[in-house]
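ok posting inputs for the zinc ion job
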Amino acid sequence: MRPIAIVLILLLGCAPSAEREAADGETGLAIADDVVERLERFAPTELSADLSSLTEEDREVLRLLLEASRYMDEIFLRQVWVDNPKLRADLERSTAPNAEAARTYYEVNFGPWDRLDEMEPFIGDLVHPEGAGYYPTDVTREELEAWLEQYPEARDAISSLTTLVIRDGDGFAAVPYSEAFREWLDPAAAKLREAAAVTSNESLARFLESRAAAFASDDYYQSDIDWMDLDSPVEVTIGPYEVYEDRLFNYKSAFESFVTVTLPEQSAALERFKAELPWLERNLPIADEHKNFDRGTESPIRVVDLVFAAGDTKAGVQTLAFNLPNDERVRESKGSKKVLLNNVLRAKYDQVLTPIAARVMAPEDVERISFEAFSSGSLHHELSHGLGPGLITVDGRDTEVRRELRELYSTLEEAKADVMGVYNTLALAERGMIDQRIIETLEPTYLAGLFRSTRFGLHEAHGRGNVAQFNYLMEKGAVVVGEDGLFRNVPEKFPGAIGELLNVMLMLQATGDYDGTREFLDTYGKATPELIAAIDKLGDIPVDVRPIYTQVDELTG
Ligand SMILES: [Zn+2]
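and the output
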């Protein structure tokens, strides 16, 4: 049927809409009736950065980094689903009444599945493949595991962060990203090298060169090290990073990019927490044998404004802070860098967190939320990703928490980072290291944050982990709901419950306990009637923001 549709369009040229709709029928696109309402859950929000202190050279570098980043959109689109390019083309031609909203929502989701709705399709009815575009769409966890039992020598390549898995005869084969995505990685690398030639900042030039080389070699180690050492007014974080998109095994990394302008004063104000990381590790509520004293502690902290984002990070719920790289070898030798996206945080606080708190929390708690606590919570969430068990030993075997917990890893790790962030902030407060304003507003702001993230959907790693925190704290009486349906913190119980919850999570990680993690998430990760009633009250409040990067045209135009 497809060739006929194409011929029709060619013949008709600027066809009247009736014929176009006939062609539309040929593509068979079924768009969900409520696509406009789905899209409205993301508040369009203009994001910009202060470029006034940048030199002409910085602006030229910024332009080249933007151009390199756009290729990450193309790669990620294919990582989400192999047939995305075809669907995008069909959607482009669609003249259905809600086609415009469907196109925008497709861009938000990088595919036809709703990331806020447990990957339910909003275009067509295809079930979302758990292995995304990384594996054959029909493969199951059991099938691949069974094959790997037979061919253990293939395990490293198949479970690599930077390969695609394809069928090969009766078995499987791994294709390196450098081959699979060469069409976009080569030109992206060329742009990075151009930017390296323009910049007079040595740390940036070194990273851009080594990252460009990594795009061709799949060896990201040296460029991850160079990224840690970046110190430049204009920076980029570009490459394959997070593994959330691989719901089959959490092995495969997704391409993304953040193009940012550094805020030096705000960054300097947070640097003092770096020195506390060894103390924070010692202070964790687990036995010393499970603590991780070997990690590097360079751990730079950056506050930046986002100028443009591409790929994985742009899909669905927007990243507000990150902690990279994920490579445990880099973490052991140098630690990891925390980056707070200041303008994204502000947008979410104003558009989402504040209205949510006003709707579901008791008035005295609503008054005690603050942007400072929200931003600080994000920082301590990110710092926490660099603390606790990473490389572990299970039954005498050296392994990683990530490998043992497989597809449950992200959910537990994200929840751990939330809880540890609160635990560490309380501990640092006792040592006089946290501003009074943040101490006073920490707990209600954290609670409002749980409601905010719970709306991301139970299937999403961050969302399900939030429900688990919420239910655990309710069970311990640290959070209560009144007859008015409004929630409040119980300050006397809160710190104790946070410590107990953190202990549970860290021990699941330290022992690489897959079954225990499953049981924990099954027990606590389900939304209760009280929580569902509260979430239902938030219907008209945006779930997240949809950034409009206002400076891209100005810079690239
Ligand atoms: Zn996180």
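notes: The chain has 26 helices and 15 strands. The longest helix spans residues 56-80.
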